[in-house]
Amino acid sequence: MREVAIIGVGSTIFGKFPEKAIFELGAEATQAALKDAGISPKDIQFAYYANLYGGMVEGQAALRDAGITDVEITNVENACTGGATAVRRAWYDIASGLYDIGIATGAESMTTSLIAGKLIPPAKGDLSGELGMNTMAKFALSQRRYMDTSGVTLEQIAMVSVKNHHNGCTNPYSQYKKEFSVEDIINSRLICDPITQLQSCSTTDGAAAVILTSLNVARRYTRKPVIIAASVIRGGDYAFRQKDITFSDVTYKGAKDAYTMAGIGPEDINLCELHDAFAVNELQHYVELGFCERGEEVALLMDGITNIKGRLPVNPSGGLLSKGHPLSATGVAQIDEIVWQLRGQAGNNQVPDAKVGLAHTLGGEVADLEAGAVGVHILKV
Amino acid sequence: MTKVPFQKGLFEETNGEPALIGSKCGSCGQVLFPAKSVCLNCMSTNVESIKLSRDGKLYTFTTVYMASEHFLPPYTVGWIELPEDIRIFSQIRGWQEHPLKIGMYMRLYIETLWQDEDNEVIGYVFKHVIGEA
């Protein structure tokens, strides 16, 4: 396998843009990535395009308006892990030697989707879905059990949201850009008890793109290529094998695969963008990603270790909670953020001296499986 | 109105005694719900259909304050742990009368889940067993 690098990243601002078609968002992010890389659309040899709630050949429509036609284009769906899956496939096509230069774009318009204003259900006919399951209930069930068995309090969980909303205030791409207190978060509208509105990501539209090349080709375009040290996608196992619903086995296994692939350990990670769709997820993922032992996750947060200026900043972008969560765009947007951080281009949200970053997404609700899929990428300079 | 199950083959009621229908693997012992003809744990076809225990314990629960496809808010769902070492996702009824607590005893009932144009759609729900912890 050849080493693969990222030479360009681009994103739309995340927010509510019901007047924009999904392909307009996708084209905007793609154009921004092309500009960032300083590359012509004619040099792009292939593309993967992630989208869940749109129509047919969304990728071709978006890429058409960015000047990319007449090449191999594959549309990808993997719920919240769709964007990471597009990057993984593009990584493989270059690592294997099939192509030298490609793009992965993820785009979603949640405000115009068929589930706008609703909780996100599984696919039609799903057993759990028929009985009232949705993605927020799934994690509310986990949070209730977590609080009961670990003694972690609602106030401590709300602190994740306080931190990430603080970070989002100074990220120009973020949806909210507003500080919230623990009281604001706990007293916001109750949706799936004990999860309130501000412990949850919002309804968001947006798109993000990355341009990947072989490392040799990357040196023609940039002096500071960001190398993909690990790229992992893994589907969830049977739910009957999950001992404890407060611990995501698929995240643990995906992270282990990624550390093995990169030849490093969790102690080598300088910053992390992880899947904080709900505040509780961030605390649980600290453990599953190997950042601390079980029972130490609250200390990691409360001691400021995961703040932007801490030893291991987590979600310096504001995360899904503040920046927003356009499902298929999220996995790509996390990689954009890490690239900006590793290049020293993250502005007010810059993490000092970052050399290695990890991106994690977890997505999809389906009966009888722990989850749909996890995506873990490790980037380095 | 005709009573129809929300999905086929999940439960039965004999002499007023309801039960979920699972499967048990004769090779590795894995119990599954819904029942499968092949064991998903070891892929053995040495699988028999079994009735699962009616009573279990509440593993976790949440009350949902937004509508789903079939349920108006608020409604409560949870995971029930059965003695067969299996967790069942279910609607929980009676939660307004008896505050829920993890670990409390729950019992299976067959009730109307929702109504569509011509049918009363029935399925399984769990309720707290009054008088037990």
Tags for this model:
heterodimer, A: 381 residues, alpha/beta, 9-stranded mixed sheet, two-stranded antiparallel sheet, 13 helices, 11 strands, B: 133 residues, mainly beta, 5-stranded mixed beta barrel, 4-stranded antiparallel sheet, 10 strands, globular
In a nutshell, what does this entry contain?
Chain A is an alpha/beta fold and 381 residues long. Chain A has 13 helices and 11 strands.
Question: How many strand segments of chain A?
Answer: 11
Largest sheet of chain A, in brief, is: 9 strands, mixed
Rg over C-alpha atoms of chain A, rounded to the nearest angstrom: 19 Å
Please give the alpha-carbon distance between the first and last residues of chain A: 19 Å
Class of secondary structure makeup of chain A: alpha/beta
Largest interface: A-B, 32 and 32 residues
Unreliable spans of chain A: none
Low confidence ranges of chain B: none
CA gyration radius of chain B, whole angstroms: 16 Å
Number of helices of chain B: 0
Strand ordering within the main sheet of chain A: 3-2-4-7-1-8-11-10-9
Helix content of chain A: 25-40%
Order of helices and strands of chain B, N to C?
EEEEEEEEEE
> What is the overall silhouette of chain A?
globular
Question: Approximately what portion of the residues of chain B adopt beta-strand conformation?
Answer: over 45%
- Please give the largest β-sheet of chain B: 5 strands, mixed, barrel
In DSSP terms (H or I, runs of 4 or more residues), the helix count of chain A works out at 13
The share of residues in extended strands of chain A comes to: 15-25%
Mean pLDDT of chain A: 97
Helix content of chain B: under 10%
Structural class of chain B: mainly beta
